[in-house]
Design a protein that fits this description.
- The protein has 15 helices and 15 strands.
- The strands form five sheets. A four-stranded parallel beta sheet has the order 4-3-9-10.
- Helix 6 packs across helix 7, helix 11 packs antiparallel against helix 12 and helix 14 runs antiparallel to helix 15.
- The longest helix has 21 residues.
């Protein structure tokens, strides 16, 4: 089966062919760690986690890299407001980001570089660009001269767009309006580092080019890495500038393919802190499990903009519930072999530019057929083994259905309530042992009034919240 992905530069689906056979080097722009992660971070993480899983299913060794920008204007502002050190702030938010990614069942990254740990390669690249007169110094920064790169603008095709140009800071010392800062010279109360061209700190764009150069880049090849990814808002100017820096510094193109995920909108509006409608992921996770959020966010194709609202989230959860109800029906069964056609259909859908909508519709069909067959023959052991295998495959390829079939339905019940439920179940089991069925039924009724359903299995009594 051939994997096709949508290349943001060519603006079409293309067949994926890695630079080195069966090895996929991917770099995804990670968060600036000054605050908690939001739904936009979750959307991007899930999109590229799905790519990671699909590549693995196609027998690729995946080297997945996501950086942490741990030096930035926003971080410095947070330092001044909180009187905390750079390390205190960035460590806190790196840890909370990782916890959120774990809740979403995001596969571990192979490499997670931090900007502050890669300063030397940034300085080397900037020095190289200065020596070629592609970079130049002003009173406030070292700038990249975009006029020296004949290919500047070919990535995003936005360089001549007046609205895009309006985003570029105006500075009379710059040679060209589109020139961007590689190194910002130190100001009062700034975080700064020594460099041959002056005390200061790196610009945002140089970080990613440098970290790719150091940790991932193939040498003596046309492209340094296979895939560069991120949110659609990064295509210009961030990715455009990254590509220019790498071209002019190394003579190589940065990435063979460029992939971008769509925005998250809240009730139809693009998420934006300035609009006050940015949903922190931690707040959503108080009411819904990470798996439910993951399932909901991947129900729309990764390139499309996503309109987030709680009504659709609840409807999406009910759809996931159906998969778990099948998992409950085959609870305790062993796995055998995944259904060949089911596996091929899912892979064909996902190999078509990660078509999750089609993949989920195939799973819906499997759920319907499974329930019909189990209704007709509830003791069919071979069917149950196959269904377990299908569900394990779904877990591997889509990162869902990984929870215990009963624990999934226990989400939202606090620890104290769980202790009470488990204690009542123990009382019921002890009553059954001594054949005090009146007591056992009484306890079961008490649990039912609490909204708890019981099921006695060969592995003991399991329960769920109705």
């Amino acid at each position: 089966m051939l994997l096709h992905i949508y290349d943001s530069v060519k603006k079409e689906k293309v067949e994926f062919n890695s630079i080195v056979p069966n090895v996929a080097k991917i770099y995804v722009c990670g968060p600036t760690v000054y605050d908690d992660s939001h739904l936009g971070h979750a959307r991007s993480a899930i999109a590229f986690d799905l790519l990671h899983r699909v590549l693995k299913a196609n027998d690729y060794e995946v080297i997945m890299t996501k950086n942490f920008t741990d030096i930035d204007d926003k971080i410095i502002k947070k330092m001044n407001e909180s009187n905390k050190s750079l390390e205190e702030i960035t460590t806190t938010y790196i840890n909370t980001y990782k916890a959120d990614m774990k809740a979403l069942n995001i596969l571990d990254n192979t490499i997670e570089p931090k900007a502050t740990e890669n300063l030397e390669i940034m300085k080397d690249m900037i020095s190289n660009l200065i020596s070629k007169d592609i970079a130049y110094k002003t009173s406030d920064s070292v700038y990249f001269d975009t006029s020296k790169d004949n290919s500047y603008g070919t990535l995003s095709h936005k360089i001549n767009d007046e609205n895009s140009q309006a985003r570029v800071e105006i500075n009379v010392e710059k040679r060209n309006p589109s020139d961007f800062a590689l190194w910002k010279f130190a100001k009062t109360n700034d975080v700064s580092f020594e460099a041959p061209f002056g005390l200061g700190r790196p610009g945002w764009h140089i970080e990613c080019s440098a970290m790719i150069e150091k940790h991932l880049a193939y040498k003596n090849t046309e492209f340094q890495i296979d895939i560069h990814g991120g949110g659609a808002d990064l295509l210009f100017p961030h990715h455009e500038n990254e590509a220019a820096q790498t071209r002019c510094s190394s003579g190589q193109n940065l990435a063979k393919y460029w992939m971008h995920n769509g925005f998250v909108n809240i009730d139809g509006e693009k998420m934006s802190k300035s609009l006050g409608n940015s949903f922190f992921l931690k707040d959503v996770l108080k009411s819904y499990s990470g798996e439910v959020v993951r399932f909901y966010l991947m129900s729309t194709h990764y390139r499309a903009n996503f309109n987030f609202n709680e009504e659709d989230l609840i409807a999406s959860k009910k759809r996931l519930d159906k998969l778990y109800r099948v998992k409950k029906r085959v609870y305790g069964s062993e796995a055998s072999t995944v259904n060949k056609k089911f596996k091929e259909d899912i892979l064909n859908a996902l190999n078509d530019d990660i078509n999750t909508s089609k993949a989920l519709s195939i799973i819906d069909e499997m759920i319907g057929n499974a329930n019909d067959k189990l209704d007709a023959n509830p003791k069919d052991k071979n069917l149950k083994k196959e269904l377990i295998s299908n569900i394990l495959f779904i877990n591997d390829i889509l990162g869902i259905a990984f929870n215990d079939a009963y624990e999934y339905f226990q989400f939202g019940i606090d620890v104290q309530s769980k202790f009470k439920i488990e204690d009542l179940i123990t009382q019921r089991n002890e009553a059954k042992k001594i054949k005090d069925f009146e007591k056992a039924d009484s306890v079961r009724n008490e649990l039912s009034e609490l909204g708890i359903s019981l099921m006695d299995t060969t592995n003991g009594t399991v329960w769920e919240k109705l």
